[in-house]
């Protein structure tokens, strides 16, 4: 049963949604208003932020203070914000990303990936993959040093990124954690209809419009657009959190069922009475704080499991020269745009 604070949050979200309807036909203003509204959720004071420009998009570093115990300085999170691929930014999600960074003790690169309809698929996916390669090429991270996280459309983009990395024969990140992911842009899930009155935030008619903006002339069932339909054999471990009051509930349940057909290491964490990306309410809603702590526990468990696995692989001959494993990462970005173009033929 949802807490009193969660039920109050749902009430206020409904009021805010009524006000936001006035901007639904003015996308540029809607982006401004959403950033303004979500920016009122302040990040923890022990997290600092710094912009990181790229050629086609930008990003923002969120770094936990050493005093808090920057517990995993050798790890990094790529965070992909939600917003239906049409709105949202690193700024709008600063409060949520800051709390995740604070709890995990890992700094995050929060992407301002390109948005639809100006930049339809595969622009956002290109930006996500580019950031992943950039972290390895420019900052020296190994794939096992990287977590990929996101919410809503950003959660779906996380899953699409895993599938794209697999297609490119690139190493998977250590793990992925996604919140209320949008996995089916064909909108075929039954909760789109059955939960339309329960969900205080998302409306099916808006989802349909924004989905079309993103996939444009492509097939909505393409697994890089709707990762529900992907092949999850060999994909990184995944944690999914979703609330029972979401129109996207069936997106998660069907995606987990599909992934398990491929023996994927996937865990689903279902929260009774919770709304879409309730984690934003962490300053006020106990379920939000608890959910973020569970993400941090998942992160710690994956790091520990990887450390044990690596320890078992250590050769007793400590003086033996290390040689890279076949197919290991070798500065993919040095091949430039011609190399990348080979992987973006749709």
Give a structural overview.
The protein has 346 residues and is of the alpha/beta class. Helix content is 39%, strand content 14%. The chain is built from ten helices and eight strands. The protein has helices at 4-20, 27-38, 94-104, 123-139, 153-167, 191-194, 204-215, 249-261, 286-313, 336-341, and strands at residues 47-53, 58-64, 76-80, 107-112, 146-151, 175-179, 238-243, 266-271. Helix 4 (123-139) crosses helix 5. The termini are far apart. The model is unreliable at 316-331 (pLDDT under 50).
Overview features:
alpha/beta; 8-stranded mixed β-sheet; 14% strand; Rossmann fold; 346 residues
Largest sheet: 8 strands, mixed
CATH fold name, please? Rossmann fold
Order of helices and strands: HHEEEHEHEHEHHEHEHH
* Spatial strand order of the main sheet: 1-2-4-3-5-6-7-8
Structural class: alpha/beta
Mean pLDDT: 89
User: Which band does the percent of strand residues land in?
Assistant: 5-15%
What CATH architecture would you give? 3-Layer(aba) Sandwich
CATH class annotation: Alpha Beta
What is the CATH H-level superfamily? Answer: Alpha/Beta hydrolase fold, catalytic domain
Estimate the global geometry from the Cα principal axes.
globular
Catalogue the unreliable spans. 316-331
How large is the count of helical segments?
Answer: 10
How many DSSP-defined strands? 8
> How helix-rich are the residues, as a percent range?
25-40%
Radius of gyration: 19 Å
| Distance between the ends | 45 Å
Summed up, the domain count is 1
């Amino acid at each position: 049963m949802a807490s009193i604070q969660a039920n109050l949050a749902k009430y206020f979200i409904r009021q805010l949604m009524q006000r936001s309807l006035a901007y639904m036909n003015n996308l540029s203003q809607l982006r401004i208003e959403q950033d303004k509204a979500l920016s009122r959720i302040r990040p923890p004071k022990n997290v600092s932020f710094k912009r990181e420009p790229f050629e086609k998009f930008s990003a923002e570093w969120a770094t936990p203070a050493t005093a808090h115990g920057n517990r995993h300085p050798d790890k990094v999170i790529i965070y992909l914000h939600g917003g239906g691929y049409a709105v949202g930014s690193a700024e709008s999600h600063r409060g949520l990303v800051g709390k995740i960074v604070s709890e995990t003790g890992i700094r995050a690169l929060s992407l301002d990936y390109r948005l639809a309809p100006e930049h339809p698929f595969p622009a956002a996916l290109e930006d996500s993959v580019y950031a992943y390669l950039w972290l390895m090429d420019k900052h020296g991270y190994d794939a096992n040093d990287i977590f990929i996280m996101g919410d809503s459309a950003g959660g779906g983009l996380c899953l699409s990124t895993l599938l794209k990395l697999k297609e490119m024969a690139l190493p998977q990140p250590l793990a992925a954690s996604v919140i209320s992911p949008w996995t089916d842009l064909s909108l075929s899930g039954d909760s789109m209809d059955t939960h339309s009155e329960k969900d205080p935030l998302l409306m099916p008619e808006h989802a349909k419009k924004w989905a079309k903006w993103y996939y444009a002339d492509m097939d909505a069932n393409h697994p890089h657009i709707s990762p529900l339909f992907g092949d999850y054999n060999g994909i990184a471990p995944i944690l999914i959190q979703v609330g029972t009051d979401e129109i996207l509930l069936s997106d998660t349940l069907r995606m987990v069922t599909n992934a398990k057909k491929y023996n994927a290491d996937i865990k689903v964490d279902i929260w009774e009475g919770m709304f879409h990306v309730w984690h934003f309410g962490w300053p006020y809603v106990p379920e939000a704080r608890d959910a973020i702590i569970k993400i941090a526990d998942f992160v710690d468990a994956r790091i520990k499991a990887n450390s044990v696995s690596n320890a078992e692989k250590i050769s007793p001959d400590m003086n033996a020269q290390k040689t890279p494993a076949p197919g290991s990462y070798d500065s993919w970005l040095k091949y430039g745009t011609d190399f990348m173009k080979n992987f973006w033929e749709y």
